[in-house]
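Appendix C. Worked example: Malignant fibrous histiocytoma-amplified sequence 1 homolog isoform X1
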Amino acid sequence: MGNKDSRPVSVPVHRQRARTPPQSQGVRQGTPARNSPGKSRTPPPKPPRAPRPENSTSNQHHSRSLPLPKRRGRHHSSGNNKNQKNGHLPNGAGRFGHTGNLTRSMSTFEVSGAMTLPRTVSDTALLGTPPTADMGTILRTEMTMSFLSRGRRELELGGRAMRILPDALLSLWDLQVLDISKNKLRQLPSKFRRLRSLESLTMSTNEFKTFPEQITDLVNLISLDMGYNELRTVPKGISRLARLVNLILNNNNFAELPEEVLYLITLENLNLSYNVLDEIPAKIYRLRRLRGLELNNNNLTRFPPGVLELFNLEVLNLSFNKIGVVPEDISRLSNLSRLGLANAGLTQLPSGICLLTLMIELDLSDNRLSELPAEFSRLKLLRKLELQWNVVEEFPEQLLQLRGLEVLSLHNNRLKFLPPGIVGLQRLKKLWISSNRLTTVPSGVCELPELASLHLYDNQLISFPPGFENVSNLPDLQIYPQRSIIFG
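Step 2, the predicted output written as structure tokens:
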């Protein structure tokens, strides 16, 4: 390609909406289709209920979440600290250190269709047990062999299409971690309450319509995942779970936050995303240890006032609610490091958001924002900013002072010009500015040392600076189609 070649750059791309995959970016999924880029549009309707995860023994739900950061020692937050699986709030909250699995023993059992696990096994040579051994004996033997020395007893029975739990399971009184997710369970046997050593219980993606009362007797529970069921309420006895730290109730049918949950004062992580909540009670302030609160994809119509009393919050997700206005008092949540306000019906931001100086990730996409507060440059720790699908016409100069930015997404706005100072953002890894009204790109953008992903397609580029044809070595480059491109 010569320097004076006026032909369009032929970098093949897919004409798709430039969204980051759920596992790596953002806080949302299921976003509706958009209007033409740059045009005024009405806010999209509330997305449908998040899809249920495929049948798998993995417990990674695909609702988009803000990752919970490591606890910062100088901020008070009591209770046991259990990090979330894959660093995300709503998913796999029951992982405790380096624990083993009973996958070797369970792999010898033939389970198909809707059958339950058998009580006896005809061939247990791999386990070194008699052919007619009771499954309880097999499981106990394997647990003793594999886990007693590790100090952790864990059993994985996810994705086995079970409708009834095997009797042998109910005698494993020393079990500490149990995953029975992605089955077809509708109720638990009465003897389930005997598993009082359980610390982590994952029952997501089943067919529970009522919350099993037996769980309220599992007083040692630290993490409970009941996401992707059909629950509407919880029993009063749940307040007996005095050690509970993580409670995952996403993708159910809760129309209101059960009052009983407000007595779980040890909670640090609460996920109620993808329900039908229209109000959050003011008494949520009782949960003073909360570090992570997921309320995205509900029917909230205002910013919950009680949330402003949760001073230990580090992660707050209110995306896909029509809250309309963010209060100035949001500055009281001084420990916030990740905030999701995507598709929240916002037309402006309060200046108080600029006082959240520990902010690392901020999602403001899918709103009607045209500018940022003047003091936005105070967010010196900001690494990721999502401003796509707004009505920004001028590049916010405040961003040029955020030298730690790694991800900047401004696609589908009304930008006509990029300031030369953008080349000062030396840590940028992703710059997505497709579907705007740009006619040129500043010299040096392609020389940003950390840049790996550059999206410029669907603009009105008529020229590129000299040397821009060398950007083809970027791992992710999308600049075609354009009206016409001429290299300087």
